[in-house]
């Protein structure tokens, strides 16, 4: 058995927890190819500079506040992310794809090579991958960081404007009622006249000669 394990190089495989999720080498290689195509397409774009004014300072994320504001994010395999810290081994605003979700970290393959990048145990190209904590990234595929002008997390709206529930849509309008002298309710004039026309038979008038 030991000889067979050495021949298959099982000991060289990276160890991972049963709860971890990771993509294999074939899928990661495909992601790197698509990232290279995206970079070529992105470099040929012509951008127009726009000055955006009137944005409150409290709704912007400062890199030094990322540790306390981004630690509750959730990630899945294939999510697009961006590095938001101005310190560390990864340059600010570097984008990549999640290829592994660990206990407190995510494995990211970046769109381009970085100086301190790794190969994630031979699963990606050199200088392309790295394991990073949750609070150093922003999930672009499933945005979860939304701040209000007061600096607190903005509440999510349960119903959109103009939403009508099923109970309200099934209700039928009731005829108006008028109160009599003794306090009892009676139908309005229109409904009373309609009821009389339905109950009384039609009359035929004879003309005398």
TrEMBL record:
Organism: Hesseltinella vesiculosa
Protein name per Swiss-Prot or TrEMBL: 5'-3' exoribonuclease 1 SH3-like domain-containing protein
Top-level taxon: Eukaryota
Annotated spans, Disordered: 149-209
Biased composition (Polar residues): 163-200
One Pfam family here: SH3_12
Domain 5'-3' exoribonuclease 1 SH3-like: 73-139
């Amino acid at each position: 058995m030991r000889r067979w394990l050495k021949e298959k190089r099982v000991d060289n495989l990276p160890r991972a927890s049963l709860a971890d999720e990771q993509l294999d080498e074939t899928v990661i290689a495909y992601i790197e190819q698509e990232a290279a195509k995206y970079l070529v397409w992105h470099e040929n774009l012509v951008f127009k500079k726009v000055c955006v004014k009137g944005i409150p300072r409290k709704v912007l994320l400062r890199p030094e506040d990322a540790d306390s504001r981004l630690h509750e994010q959730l990630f899945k395999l294939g999510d697009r992310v961006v590095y938001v810290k101005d310190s560390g081994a990864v340059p600010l605003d570097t984008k990549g794809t999640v290829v592994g979700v660990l206990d407190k970290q995510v494995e990211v393959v970046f769109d381009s090579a970085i100086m301190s990048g790794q190969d994630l145990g031979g699963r990606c190209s050199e200088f392309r991958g790295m394991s990073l904590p949750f609070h150093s990234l922003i999930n672009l595929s499933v945005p979860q960081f939304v701040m209000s002008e007061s600096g607190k997390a903005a509440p999510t709206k349960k119903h959109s404007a103009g939403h009508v529930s099923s109970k309200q849509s099934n209700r039928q309008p009731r005829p108006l009622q008028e109160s009599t002298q003794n306090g009892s309710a009676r139908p309005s004039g229109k409904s009373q006249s309609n009821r009389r026309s339905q109950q009384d038979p039609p009359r035929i008038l004879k003309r005398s000669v």
